[in-house]
Structure formats: C-alpha cells, structure tokens
Amino acid sequence: MTEKEKEYRQERIIRSLTQCNLLTIGCKTTGQVARMLGMTAKELYRELKERSILFKSDGVWMLEAEYAFQNLLRYRYTLFYTLLGEEKVRVYPVWTEQGVEFLRNELQ
Known about the structure:
three-stranded antiparallel beta sheet, alpha+beta, single chain
C-alpha cells in the first residue's frame, strides 16, 4: 500500500468514526453516570451485570435483549495505535438522557 493510499484510508476511517460519533452528542460516559450515582464505573458495570441489564461481548458492554431497543445506550468509537503502531478502534457505551434517567430509577 502506498503512502497516499494509507493517508486516504486513514482519512476515510476518521470520517466514518466522526459520523458515527455524531449520534452520541449529549450522551454521558459510564464514568460520568457512575459519579452522579456516587459510585465508580467499575461498580456500576458490576451492578448492571448482576441485575442482568448489561453483559459483555467481545470486550464491549451491551444491553440485554429486553432493554436493547429502549434508546438507553449508544456507542462511541475512538481510533488509537498500539505500541507496535497498529491501528485499533475502541468501542465503548455512552448513555442517552433516557438511559441516565433509567439508571437513576433502577439504582436509587
């Protein structure tokens, strides 16, 4: 792959990720929601897993089927490089306003 092709590929990836992330404007990370609830993100994830609200699949937290279509969660994407210089995409959940309200009602 030529340098120009690599640059073009990189630009396309960044544009795609940016487009996907537009859907997450106004969403809160799990860490932000956890702080609102007086806990850490790790504690919140554990609690949601115990209550069968979330499960982990291939390293990504996902909603259980009964909650999946309630507009509670969206996913944000970031591009990063490993120490070996490999491009990777990290996917992590962010909570919509409805999701934050749902968590407040469930956990308080």
